[in-house]
Amino acid sequence: MIKIAPSILSADFANLGRDIDALTEWNADWIHFDVMDGHFVPNLTFGPPVCAAVRPRTKLPIDVHLMVDEPSRFVPWFQKAGADSITIHVEAERHLHRALQQIREGGCKAGVVLNPGTPAIAAKEVLPYCDLVLVMSVNPGFGGQTFIPESLEKIAELRRMIDDRGLTTDIQVDGGINPETAERCIDAGATVLVAGSAVFHAADPKDMIRQLRCGR
Ligand code: DX5
Ligand code: ZN
């Protein structure tokens, strides 16, 4: 079953509650929550107080993608704010192994994120500690960018690593997802697709989410 995680980075922030409500009506699976610190990535977004405000508004899992330096500093904040899963960049965390355990011990699903320039092998040692691995298919920082096609080989490589070890880790893909790139990612082995602009800028977002599942 393919899961669709719309990124609220592309929502209307002046009507965030309305857009959060709509995601349930549109049959989204998770809410993708992009946190940026202006250091690890050039942009700034939102933090724990916004996550805490969204929490009582929806039953959908909140999937926090931390694009911040030393993300382990913020893990307890987001756990208190009601996150269901937390993903951290391998490029940003010195003690990845410890940080992933910290996330799980706090009751959340844990995952690592790989930038486009980071090879799949960077996730190898920590795979047993991950509920998901997120492949960035654009450089993180902004919505609305074009899918990087080399991401497909990385997804396929992770799929082999996960299957060879008999793990059930989800492979999530984030950036430039539309019905066409979605199908290629699913064929390569992805199980969770993040989509910002494709969903929120669609004339019919509910139908777009249906299309992104590619009938799978
Ligand atoms: C990029 C974020 C993405 C982004 C995806 O740094 O991590 O989640 O919002 O946006 P689209 O789907 O528009 O590429
Ligand atoms: Zn993201």
Can you walk me through this structure?
The chain is α/β, with parallel strands linked by helices and 216 residues long. The chain is 32% helix and 19% strand. Strand 4 (85-89), helix 4 (96-105) and strand 5 form a beta-alpha-beta unit. The longest helix has 14 residues, at 151-164. The structure holds D-xylitol-5-phosphate and zinc ion (ZN).
Task: For the structure shown, list the relevant keywords.
216 residues, alpha/beta, 8 strands, 19% strand, binds D-xylitol-5-phosphate, binds zinc ion
Order of H and E elements? EHEHEHEHEEHEHEHH
Q: DSSP helix count? A: 8
> Beta-strand level of the residues, as a percent range?
15-25%
Side by side, the strands of the main sheet go 1-8-7-6-5-4-3-2
The hetero molecules present are:
D-xylitol-5-phosphate, zinc ion
- Enumerate the spans where pLDDT stays under 50 for 5 or more consecutive residues: none
The helix content, as a percent range, equals 25-40%
Radius of gyration computed on alpha carbons:
16 Å
Shape: globular
Mean pLDDT: 98
Largest sheet: 8 strands, parallel
Query: Using DSSP, what is the number of strands?
Result: 8
How far apart, in Å, are the first and last alpha carbons? 6 Å
What structural category do the secondary elements indicate? alpha/beta
